[in-house]
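Subject: design request, 502 residues
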C-alpha cells in the first residue's frame, strides 16, 4: 500500500487517526474504519493446498512425494502459514497411501523453514472419529508440536468448549500457537451474541487467535462483516476466516471480513481451488494488491507454485469430485453441500428420491429437537440420517439409531440449545444422561496402546497411530516396520528380536 492512500484514509477518519492505537482498537465503533499500524492491517494468507484443498477435491489422496518438490518454492511465497496436517490427512496417509503421517510432518518441517505450519485438530476427537482419553489428547499435542507444528486450530462439532479444553491447555503448555475455532452455522440460537461470547470464552482459554470455520460455505459477506465486528467488539485476538467456495460466496465473504477487521484468510492455489475447496490464492492476492489490505505476496512468486500444482491436479484427475461450478442447494436449504449430496444418494438407494423435499423440511425439525447442532462431521450425518428415518418410516422418532441415542446421552457434549425432553425420553428411556465433559468418562488409554503396538513400534508416535486407527494401523505398522527395518541396517537388532508376521 502507498503512503498516500493510507494518509488519505486516515484523514477521512480524523477522529480515529488522532487517537491512541490501543484505545482505538479496544473501543472500535461499529461503522468506523480501523486505522492501525501497517503490519496489523496487512491481510495474510494461509495456503490450504497441502490439507483442506486436496481433502476437498481429491479425497485427501495427495502423496508426500508430490508435496516435497514444491515445498521450498512455497516457503518463499510469504504465506502466513501452510495448512498441511490434521483433518483427514492422518487417516488417509495410513489407510490409502501406506505413508506415515508423522514422517510427512517431519519432512515438510525440514523443507519449510520460514513459513509457519498449521493443522486442524478435532478437539477431543484429535484426528480420529471418537473422543479419546485426556492422556491421549495431551500426548498427541505434545508429539505434534515436538515434530514441528507451529499453529494448532482446534474445533468441536458442537462448539462445546469443554471438548477443546484439554487439547487447548496442552498446546499452550507446548508453547505453540493456539487457534480456537468457531464452527459456523445458521440457527435461531447461533446469534451474533452467542458467537461473540464464544470468542471471548476462547480468549479466556488462552486462544492466540480465533478462526471462523464455515465448512459449508454458508457465510455470506453481510453476515461475515457482522460476525467479525461482533467478535472484534469483545476481543482483540486476530481473526482468521475459513470457508469453502461451494456456494460461490467465499471470496466475497473474505473480502468483506478482512475489511471488517479479520487478519488471515484461508485460500488454495488456483489448480486446487474453488468448487468444494477454498477460494483461489492468486485472485485474492491480486484483488487486494495496492490497497490497505495488500498481502505483500508477489504474484510472480505464486506462478511456479500454481504451475506445479497444475501438474499434480492432472495426475490426480481421476479422483477429482467436481461440483461443476456453484452448488445452489447450499443457498436454498442452508445445509452443507456434502450433506445434501449424501442425502440424495441415500434416498436414491432406497428408491425414495421423491421424498427429498420432505427430508429437507424434516432437517430443521430434527435439529430443533437436538438443540441445533452445527452441521459438520459427525453431527451432519447424525441429523441427516434421523431426518431420513423420520420421513421414510412415516413416523417421527420411530427408529432412533445408536449415534442419536449417544447424542441424547450427552456423549458428544452439550448441544447449543436445550434438547427436546420428549424426544430425549424416546431416545434414551430412563437412562441418566451425562452432564460432565465427555472426556472425563474415558479412562487413560496410552499405556494400553503402547503395549498393543509395542512389537512394531519404531517411534513413540506409533502408539498414537495405533490408538486412533487400530484397524488401519494393524496393517500399516507391521508393513512399515518390515520396510524400514529391512532397508535400514541400523535396525538389525530390532528385527532379530521382533516377532512380526510377514
Ligand atoms: Co475446511
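Subject: RE: design request

Done. Sequence follows.
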Amino acid at each position: 500500500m502507498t503512503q498516500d492512500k493510507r494518509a488519505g484514509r486516515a484523514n477521512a477518519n480524523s477522529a480515529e487517526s488522532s487517537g491512541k492505537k490501543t484505545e482505538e482498537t479496544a473501543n472500535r465503533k461499529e461503522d468506523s474504519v480501523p486505522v492501525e499500524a501497517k503490519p496489523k492491517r496487512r491481510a495474510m494468507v494461509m495456503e490450504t493446498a497441502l490439507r483442506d484443498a486436496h481433502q476437498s477435491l481429491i479425497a485427501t489422496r495427495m502423496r508426500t512425494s508430490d508435496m516435497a518438490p514444491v515445498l521450498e518454492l512455497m516457503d518463499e511465497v510469504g504465506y502466513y502459514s501452510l495448512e498441511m496436517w490434521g483433518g483427514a490427512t492422518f487417516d488417509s496417509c495410513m489407510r490409502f497411501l501406506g505413508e506415515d503421517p508423522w514422517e510427512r510432518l517431519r519432512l515438510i518441517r525440514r523443507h519449510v523453514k520460514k513459513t509457519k505450519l498449521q493443522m486442524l485438530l478435532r478437539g477431543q476427537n484429535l484426528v480420529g472419529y471418537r473422543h479419546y482419553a485426556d492422556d491421549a489428547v495431551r500426548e498427541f499435542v505434545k508429539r505434534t508440536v515436538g515434530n514441528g507444528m507451529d499453529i494448532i486450530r482446534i474445533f468441536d462439532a458442537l462448539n462445546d468448549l469443554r471438548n477443546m479444553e484439554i487439547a487447548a491447555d496442552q498446546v499452550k503448555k507446548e508453547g505453540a500457537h493456539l487457534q480456537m475455532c468457531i464452527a459456523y452455522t445458521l440457527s435461531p440460537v447461533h446469534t451474533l451474541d452467542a458467537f461473540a461470547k464464544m470468542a471471548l470464552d476462547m480468549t479466556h482459554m488462552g486462544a492466540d487467535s480465533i478462526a471462523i470455520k464455515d465448512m459449508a460455505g454458508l457465510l455470506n459477506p453481510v453476515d461475515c462483516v457482522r460476525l467479525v465486528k461482533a467478535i472484534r467488539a469483545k476481543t482483540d485476538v486476530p481473526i482468521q476466516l475459513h470457508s469453502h467456495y461451494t456456494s460461490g460466496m467465499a471470496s466475497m465473504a473474505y473480502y468483506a471480513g478482512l475489511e471488517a477487521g479479520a487478519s488471515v484468510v484461508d485460500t488454495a492455489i488456483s489448480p486446487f481451488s474453488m468448487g468444494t475447496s477454498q477460494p483461489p490464492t492468486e485472485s485474492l492476492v491480486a484483488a487486494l494488491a495496492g490497497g490497505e489490505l495488500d498481502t505483500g505476496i508477489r504474484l510472480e512468486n505464486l506462478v511456479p507454485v500454481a504451475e506445479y500444482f497444475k501438474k499434480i491436479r492432472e495426475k490426480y484427475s481421476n479422483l477429482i469430485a467436481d461440483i461443476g461450478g456453484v452448488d445452489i442447494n447450499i443457498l436454498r436449504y442452508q445445509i452443507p453441500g456434502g450433506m445434501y449430496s449424501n442425502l440424495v444418494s441415500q434416498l436414491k438407494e432406497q428408491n425414495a428420491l421423491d421424498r427429498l423435499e420432505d427430508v429437507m423440511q424434516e432437517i430443521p425439525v430434527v435439529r430443533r429437537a437436538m438443540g441445533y447442532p452445527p452441521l459438520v462431521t459427525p453431527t451432519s450425518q447424525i441429523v441427516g440420517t434421523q431426518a431420513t428415518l423420520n420421513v421414510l418410516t412415516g413416523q417421527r422418532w420411530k427408529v432412533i439409531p445408536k449415534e442419536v441415542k449417544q447424542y441424547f446421552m450427552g456423549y458428544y457434549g452439550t448441544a447449543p440449545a436445550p434438547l427436546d425432553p420428549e424426544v430425549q425420553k424416546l431416545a434414551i428411556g430412563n437412562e441418566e444422561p451425562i452432564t460432565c465433559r465427555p472426556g472425563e468418562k474415558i479412562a487413560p488409554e496410552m499405556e494400553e496402546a503402547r503395549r498393543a503396538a509395542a512389537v512394531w513400534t519404531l517411534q513413540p508416535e506409533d502408539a498414537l497411530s495405533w490408538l486412533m486407527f487400530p484397524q488401519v494401523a494393524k496393517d500399516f505398522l507391521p508393513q512399515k516396520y518390515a520396510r524400514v527395518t529391512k532397508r535400514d541396517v541400523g535396525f538389525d537388532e530390532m528385527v532379530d528380536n521382533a516377532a512380526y508376521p510377514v
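Confidence is low (pLDDT under 50) at residues 1-30, 488-502.
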